[in-house]
Write a structure and sequence with these properties.
This protein has 286 residues and is α+β, with helices and mostly antiparallel strands. The chain has helices spanning 2-14, 30-50, 74-83, 162-178, 205-217; strands at residues 65-66, 91-100, 103-111, 115-125, 128-138, 195-196, 222-233, 236-245, 248-259, 262-272. The protein folds into two domains: 2-139, Nuclear Transport Factor 2, Chain: A (Roll); 159-272, Nuclear Transport Factor 2, Chain: A (Roll). The protein is built from five helices and ten strands.
């Protein structure tokens, strides 16, 4: 851990890029670049656990925009966050990694100040990581159907359907979660076939409907106010939104798996948005 903190501090302080040597070939294929960006992100996250210093070089030392509101901007903020961790306490297991253009997004099982499940988004610019967003939630017990917040399908396919799947999922979130057009709900699913990883909701579309109905009777309403970003690769689509769950103002990260033009599986992480006076950077959650 000390290695990665030291590397972050040195790079931040001197303004030097230690990874220029890694950018030897400009004429690499797009597919190869995709694989490299994903691997860089997975390696950087794993370094939180191992303390490896090399992955720090994947970050642009002169431009690292941080949207985790508990971390200060730049590499110095990243290093300070890691330094606050109890020694040898962090565990990182990235289960899913995808790329959409200049963005890589991941789904990770963490032990980071306690067990957490998280989504991270990294933006690349000129081969370097320049911006980061995340959403973290304390890892819960398996849901009523026995699914955890991280298990389930991982196979990436249908790359030619990426844009169609992004359009489908955006429409679902906009229709159902933002505008409450529940009469359209069934049209987004293949009958009752639906695998759910939210800790409180069982499988099947009927399970989702019953849970929302039960919450409504308790006066607890789920309302998405705005979609901020939709990213996808093949059959997986991530939607970043903000809204309210009851009285809490939240950031919602929802990952969907699409199969044959219908939503087949769902994972999510919900994080309350901290009061602005507690933020350690001014970049905002989104």
């Amino acid at each position: 851990m000390n290695k990665i903190i030291l590397a972050a501090t040195i790079i931040s302080g001197l303004g030097l890029s230690t990874a220029n040597a890694q950018n030897k070939s400009i004429s690499k294929t797009k597919k190869t670049v995709k694989m490299e960006n994903k691997q860089q992100v997975v390696s950087l996250l794993k370094a939180i656990e191992t303390g490896a210093a090399e992955p720090i070089g994947y970050i642009n030392p002169n431009k690292y925009i941080q949207h985790n509101l508990g971390a200060a901007d730049g590499l110095a903020g990243f290093g300070a966050l890691l330094q606050a961790l109890p020694p040898n306490s962090a565990k990182v297991n990235t289960v899913r990694a995808f790329q959409d253009g200049d963005f890589v997004f991941t789904h990770t099982d963490y032990d980071f100040f306690g067990p957490k499940t998280g989504f991270d988004i990294f933006r690349f610019e000129d081969g370097k990581i320049v911006e980061h967003w995340d959403n973290l939630q304390e890892t819960a017990m398996p849901n009523p159907s026995g699914h955890t917040m991280i298990d389930g399908a991982t196979e990436l396919k249908d790359l030619d359907k990426t844009e169609a799947n992004k359009t489908l999922v955006r429409s679902f979130v906009d229709d159902i979660l933002v505008n409450g057009k529940m009469e359209k709900l069934a049209g987004y699913f293949d009958g009752d076939n639906y695998i759910q990883h939210n800790p409180a909701i069982p499988d099947q579309l009927s399970g989702l409907g019953k849970t929302l109905e039960a919450l409504g009777k308790q006066g607890i309403f789920l309302k998405y106010d705005k979609i901020h970003r939709v990213l996808g690769e093949g059959n997986f689509v991530l939607v970043v939104s903000e809204g309210h769950f009851g009285k809490s103002h939240n950031s919602f990260y929802d990952l969907f798996r699409v199969e044959n033009g219908k939503i087949a599986e769902h994972w999510d992480v919900i994080e309350p948005i901290a009061p602005k006076e507690t933020w350690k950077n001014n970049n905002g959650k989104f």
